[in-house]
Amino acid sequence: MKQILSISFALGLMAALPQAAQAGCYADYKAKQDNPLKLHYGVAELSGGCSKGAAQGELAPRLARDGWTLLNVVSVFGDEGLQERKDSAGRYFLRY
Questions:
Q1: CA 31 from chain center: how many Å?
Q2: What are the domain boundaries of the chain?
Q3: What DSSP letter does each residue of 20-50 carry, written as one string?
Q4: Which helix (DSSP H) or strand (DSSP E) does residue 87 occupy?
Q5: CA dist 89 to 8, 28, 36, 84, Å?
Q6: How many angstroms separate the first and last alpha carbons of the chain?
Q7: Predicted structure pTM score
Q8: Do residues 28 and 84 make contact, with C-beta atoms less than 8 angstroms apart?
Q9: Looking at the record's lineage, which domain of life comes first (predicted)?
């Protein structure tokens, strides 16, 4: 019986790992353009690490392609924080 429980636990753990790996990672950030000065708040999906440092490294070049300068990464979060930021980010929601 103990062996059956161990096997069941191991199988359950293996089934849960792919779901955890698929969890989204997002960052909300502030960026600017000069001449004329424009500011925006946005939300972006991250493909690398899920930390502020990784987000800075990933977002700065994405934004720079369109002439934006990353000011700061406000936070990083998972799927659970995505919808609450959608209205605030407006047209910059998942744009970069």
A1: 16
A2: 24-92
A3: HHT---EEEEEEEETTTTEEEEEEEE-SS-S
A4: helix 82-89
A5: 44, 8, 21, 10
A6: 52
A7: 0.75
A8: no
A9: Bacteria
How is residue 34 annotated by DSSP? T
Percent of residues, the chain, with pLDDT higher than 90: 75
Structure tokens at 25: 């990672």
Helix (H, G, I), strand (E, B) or coil at 70: strand
CB under 8 Å to 12, separation ≥6 — which residues? none
Residue 13 pLDDT greater than 60, yes or no: no
- Three-state SS string over 50-69 comes to CCHHHHHHHHHHHHHCCCCE
Distance CA(51)–CA(14), nearest Å, equals 25
pLDDT in tens, 45-73: 999 899 999 999 999 999 999 999 999 99
Range in 19-23, 56-60, 77-81 with the lowest mean pLDDT: 19-23
